Backbone:
């Protein structure tokens, strides 16, 4: 049983004294956390010392977002999802469309199982991108990890990435000590990530010791990119201009699997289990952790009264081209899969490919002044 | 004594011990704060396995200093205490920090407390044509509770409850009301802003990185007396911040109210079985090592348009053991030749001694200002170093 003297000290105070005031709050954690659950879990600690208060701090400090239902809790290590399942299972169920504690998640990174996707109309689809995250077994997660752990992750990642060849040959740029020229180039390529400013992230402790142990790796072709020690141990991104999602997904799968093999050789595989799939810091990214999407011109369709409904039925979501929380510019939208958990990588990218294809057809019809009523899909 | 209180096997700290000191030692190469100047790898190695009885560790202490390399104009402290025991368990780091920050104060030095306002000579007649307002502030921590970087919601609420009960028993000139941040009405909020009383959630990364803003605004609030001359902040950067202030130049009255109010509050806490954190070496124990001793900043807003442009202004302030700030507080610029002039020291001098320095120093600065107005030199007025 882990020994946590700070947690034991807090047990001197009653449940009512310690229970957070969530009366102004609107996030998944606040909707789930009752006094009963708090009472049951407050004395617990994961083996690395992560506690219930650590899990929920970001949700207590950030009552909510006007447009988005935030998650309001994070994991500090792989065991968080087990030790605090009484809180996290209901949060996961709410966030991931009713996913049950007994459900199994399938992983499919075989790009050949994707049908089509190589011919999205480049007059409409400006770029294609697939991203996910990976956590390395044996280390705690960004809200909790120490400098030694973070540096250990960085070191392993650099070794793994340095051994990649061919289309994956590339270079690592640590945030610390980056030259001005390198920094400007990375900004121009839209690759550079900066110290988080969002209180959702800073309140969870992810920005500690910045920029120690953080960096960006990308291949020479600038089509495959890895972020080290930002919101997750690794964020892996495959991207290119135009509409060849199949190629983007191929590179994504191949690159990921190569990286995974190298980590396994060092006895540090990725955190994964058959219930939650890939384990990441935020419960919203469990399962595939995958967001696959395109930047696509839909000026007419986006003003159609049924646009939102069509997206919902296609299991897609829209964002502005600056990412989450931005507005679209010039009728160009970021369209991506809405789901993460309960369907495989191939299935999610298939939804994007099929859905975007349909929406481009609809756009073309609307351009010609024709109706799209006959094309509106059933709920997927 | 330390071994008897020392808990063993704190899981998180134990996990970190798997990594070598070199692997865990922070990169302080870009840093310029007191912690970074003192913390060596050897010191880190010696202290990293320790924790206070409430579980505060070395990494907790230094996190704010690691996350905030420095300030261009101000030498920041870069470390905080999480409880009273921090200053003892981690004295190998904090004693040198205290020494650097407080003018060579030694681990063996004793600090004197003097809250008898009768000991202040003069101070009731600073020229109100120049001195616009007077203010004295300090902080207090309640023994038995962890400090803002570390305290839980239960602790913070207990501090609030004790404080509001104690303050509710004040009477006469000190009779007042508590406004919890959590359920303040818009009208109350606007009034407190207009009075310049309202404090808001910290935005400075120096404070955020140490964990002081957790659970905001739970258990935070402002109490002030009906006359608006005595103000207490609950659970901001310290358990309590106590402020006495008024317009004009009667520093003696401000200080008298300060001492009287503080002493009454202390008595009320004692009646309820709680005392302030204090010891004869460090005086009053507060979250930031810079506020140890008296925790007192006493000052005035004063018009010194000529004086402030004089070539020897900085030098004179230093000799008088005073510091200047803009009228918005630390890091702000002076507006219209009006400066915030206050004592530079906190530890190693008593409250009376520090306010005496302000009273005597400001009196002299005004004399100099008047001379300069008349085009006369001030060379013979320049003081020796105090």
Residues:
């Amino acid at each position: 049983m882990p020994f946590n003297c700070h947690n034991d000290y807090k047990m001197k105070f009653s449940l009512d004294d310690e229970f957070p005031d969530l009366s102004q709050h609107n996030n998944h954690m606040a909707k789930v956390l009752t006094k009963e659950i708090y009472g049951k879990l407050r004395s617990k600690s994961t083996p690395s010392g992560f506690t219930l208060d650590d899990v929920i701090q970001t949700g207590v400090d950030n009552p909510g977002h006007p447009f988005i239902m935030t998650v309001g809790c994070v994991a500090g290590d792989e065991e968080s999802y087990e030790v605090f399942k009484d809180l996290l299972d209901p949060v996961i169920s709410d966030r991931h469309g009713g996913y049950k504690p007994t459900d199994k998640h399938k992983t499919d990174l075989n790009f050949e199982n994707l049908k089509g996707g190589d011919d999205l109309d480049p007059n409409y689809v400006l770029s294609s991108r697939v991203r996910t995250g990976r956590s390395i077994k044996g280390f705690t997660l960004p809200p909790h990890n120490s400098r030694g752990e973070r540096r250990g992750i960085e070191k392993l990642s650099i070794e793994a990435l340095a051994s990649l060849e061919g289309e994956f040959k590339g270079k690592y740029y640590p945030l610390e000590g980056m030259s001005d020229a390198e920094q400007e180039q990375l900004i121009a390529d839209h690759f550079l990530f900066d110290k988080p400013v969002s209180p959702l992230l800073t309140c969870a402790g992810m920005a500690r010791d910045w920029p120690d142990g953080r960096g960006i790796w990308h291949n020479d072709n600038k089509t495959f990119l890895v972020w080290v020690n930002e919101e997750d141990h690794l964020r892996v991104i495959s991207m290119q201009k135009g509409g060849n999602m199949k190629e983007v997904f191929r590179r994504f799968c191949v690159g990921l699997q190569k990286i995974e093999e190298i980590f396994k050789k060092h006895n540090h595989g990725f955190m994964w289990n058959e219930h939650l799939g890939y384990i990441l810091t935020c419960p919203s990214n469990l399962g595939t952790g995958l967001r696959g999407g395109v930047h696509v011109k839909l000026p007419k369709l986006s003003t159609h009264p049924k646009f939102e409904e069509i997206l919902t039925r296609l299991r897609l979501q829209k964002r502005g081209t600056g990412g989450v929380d931005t507005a679209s510019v010039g009728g160009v939208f970021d369209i991506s899969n809405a789901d993460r958990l309960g369907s495989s990588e191939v299935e999610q990218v298939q939804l994007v490919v099929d859905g975007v294809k349909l929406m481009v057809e609809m756009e073309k019809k609307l351009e010609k002044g024709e109706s799209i009523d006959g094309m509106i899909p059933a709920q997927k | 004594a330390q071994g008897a209180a020392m808990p063993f096997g704190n899981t998180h700290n134990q996990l970190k011990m798997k990594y070598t000191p070199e692997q865990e030692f922070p990169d302080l190469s870009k840093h310029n704060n007191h912690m970074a100047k003192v913390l060596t790898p050897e010191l880190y190695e010696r202290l990293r396995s320790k924790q206070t009885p409430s579980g505060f560790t070395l990494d907790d202490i230094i996190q704010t200093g690691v996350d905030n390399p420095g300030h261009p104009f101000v030498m920041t402290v870069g470390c905080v205490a999480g409880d009273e025991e921090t200053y003892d368990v981690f004295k190998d780091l904090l004693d040198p920090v205290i020494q650097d920050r407080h003018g060579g104060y030694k681990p063996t030095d004793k600090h004197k407390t003097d809250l008898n306002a009768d000991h202040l000579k003069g101070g009731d007649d600073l020229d109100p044509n120049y001195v616009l307002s007077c203010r004295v502030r300090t902080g207090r921590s309640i023994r038995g509770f962890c400090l803002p970087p570390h305290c839980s919601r239960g602790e913070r609420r207990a501090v609030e409850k004790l404080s509001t009960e104690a303050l509710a028993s004040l009477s006469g000139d000190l009779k007042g009301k508590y406004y919890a941040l959590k359920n303040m009405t818009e009208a109350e909020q606007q009034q407190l802003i207009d009075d310049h009383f309202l404090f808001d959630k910290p935005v400075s990364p120096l404070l955020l990185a140490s964990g002081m803003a957790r659970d905001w605004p739970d258990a935070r609030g402002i109490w002030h007396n009906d006359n608006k001359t005595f103000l207490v902040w609950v659970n901001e950067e310290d358990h309590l911040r106590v402020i006495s202030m008024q317009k004009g130049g009667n520093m003696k009255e401000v200080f008298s109210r300060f001492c009287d109010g503080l002493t009454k509050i202390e008595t009320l806490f004692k009646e309820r079985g709680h005392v302030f954190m204090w010891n004869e070496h460090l005086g009053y124990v507060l979250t930031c090592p810079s506020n140890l001793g008296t925790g007192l900043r006493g000052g005035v807003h004063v018009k010194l348009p000529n004086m402030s442009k004089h070539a020897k202004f900085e030098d004179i302030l230093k000799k008088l053991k005073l510091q200047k700030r803009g009228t918005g507080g630390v890091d702000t610029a002076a507006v219209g030749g009006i400066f915030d002039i206050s004592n530079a020291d906190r530890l190693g001098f008593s409250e009376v001694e520090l306010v005496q320095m302000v009273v005597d120093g400001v009196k002299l600065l005004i004399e100099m200002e008047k001379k300069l107005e008349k085009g006369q030199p001030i060379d013979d007025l320049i003081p020796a170093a105090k």
